[in-house]
Amino acid sequence: MCQLLGMNCNVPTDICFSFEGFCERGGNTDRHQDGWGIAFFEGKAYRSFIDTKPSSESPVAQMVKNYPIKSLNTIAHIRQATIGAVELSNTQPYQREAWGLNWIFAHNGDLWNYNPIIKGKFQPVGTSDSERAFCTIMNTLAAKYPDCPPPLKQLYKELEEICAPIAEYGTLNFLLSNGQLLFARCSTLLYYVIRQAPFNEAHLIDKDMSVDFTHLTGDNDRVAVIATQPLTNNEAWTKFEKHQLIAFKDGQPVEFD
Amino acid sequence: MCQLLGMNCNVPTDICFSFEGFCERGGNTDRHQDGWGIAFFEGKAYRSFIDTKPSSESPVAQMVKNYPIKSLNTIAHIRQATIGAVELSNTQPYQREAWGLNWIFAHNGDLWNYNPIIKGKFQPVGTSDSERAFCTIMNTLAAKYPDCPPPLKQLYKELEEICAPIAEYGTLNFLLSNGQLLFARCSTLLYYVIRQAPFNEAHLIDKDMSVDFTHLTGDNDRVAVIATQPLTNNEAWTKFEKHQLIAFKDGQPVEFD
């Protein structure tokens, strides 16, 4: 099993505070020590940092914690290996380019005996169930929409439909972003919190560390943080419903008609 | 214009020494200060580190210099922007997945008025001539070989053929690797050196720094280093011929019949 951390904002924001607590779960406060990764969108581009060392010890994670990268959409993952060896090819988040956009995906959960025939332009590089699910999602979308991605509402519906049969193989909690918005899907366990004015102080669960967002934010800033387990002990985290898919844009869930 | 650095080896080797000198050219000993990037293959997987800061100042570059990552195929790039803005989407190396393999590409040179209609599964995310060339190369290969990549000799010939018309638009020096081998193509300027037993001390041109490879290597180790300009002043660098394409495997050029 693994843990997920995502952030979607209306202004580019760094994830340093949340990542600081999240990293502790990679070998210190929790046992997710089989690698980690984080991907930041900057415009249409992204950059990712991944390592097979535990996030609590990794020199790459240390650098990420000290180098604030501001992003509208960020996805991080810490791994406890179950399906697929501890090696870089099974270290998430995964990325593929489709329609001139980067798509970033990270999965938490096990999909037992999920070995579909993967037909299409996206093929797994590694051996994880997660990458097979990602390639299946992207191939299904690309086959149905060869020239450009569907509009947001349609994309949301397609993702719900594509994911339902995959989720029957086990647990499919995931984060997916194309840099424009961030989808979060829950099979079993996922929470989110919205930070917006009036801002307050937040205190991490995994490390004795607080930050007062009133000093760091503008009145109109809005940030959604999504995580497998709440990262702070004094904020109101909302638990996802089972099989709920939420599209986050500009720091809040998109309401569809 | 930009500069390229590549390494292909028969045993996983870190690039720290060469990268140390190469980074100096990103703002110190040379003017390539509009971003940089490096990609390391580890098995079939890769990880890349990119930054829009000059490599001589970037905290990410500092971390890469201090964290030896051993790889059979490494590609690095420092940028002096000409076509395409200074932003992350135009920062190389670029990557695409094809046939379940990662393909990494970095380009040096300008391709003036190179605006082909890019048909196929690989589309540019950014606005650089380099990414357009990379997508064209990959789309041409994928269209001709939909199910699996061609064997090495055939791949070499295809690349020669695909590249010739692109190179007519200007300068097409590039490095391309799928993790199994490294292709280096020269329009105007590219050098390589082979390090193998008996090993010697090497001294950087861009920094007063030497390394004695006799203490760091095994008798059978072999490393090819490819660079836009020689990195050391006491080794025998071979200059590529104009429009020469070399496939490096196990630390040496592949000889085709």
Summarize the structure.
The structure is a homodimer. By secondary structure, chain A is an alpha+beta fold. Chain A is built from four helices and 15 strands.
Report what the structure shows.
- The structure is a homodimer of 257-residue chains.
- In chain A, the strands form three sheets. The first copy, chain A, has a seven-stranded antiparallel sheet with strand order 3-2-4-1-12-9-13, covered by helices on one side. A six-stranded antiparallel sheet of chain A has the order 5-6-7-8-14-15, with helices on one face. A two-stranded antiparallel sheet of chain A has the order 10-11.
- The first copy, chain A, is built from four helices and 15 strands.
- The first copy, chain A, has helices spanning 16-24, 59-66, 129-144, 152-167; strands spanning 2-13, 36-42, 45-51, 71-79, 94-98, 101-108, 173-177, 182-185, 191-196, 201-203, 210-212, 222-227, 238-239, 245-249, 252-253.
- The N and C termini of chain A lie far apart (35 Å).
- Helices cover 19% and strands 33% of the residues of chain A.
- Chain A is α+β, with helices and mostly antiparallel strands and 257 residues long.
- The model of chain A has no long low-confidence stretch (mean pLDDT 93).
- Chain A has one domain (2-253): 4-Layer Sandwich (Glutamine Phosphoribosylpyrophosphate, subunit 1, domain 1), CATH 3.60.20.10.
- The radius of gyration of chain A is 17 Å and the shape is globular.
- The interface between A and B is medium-sized, with 35 and 34 residues.
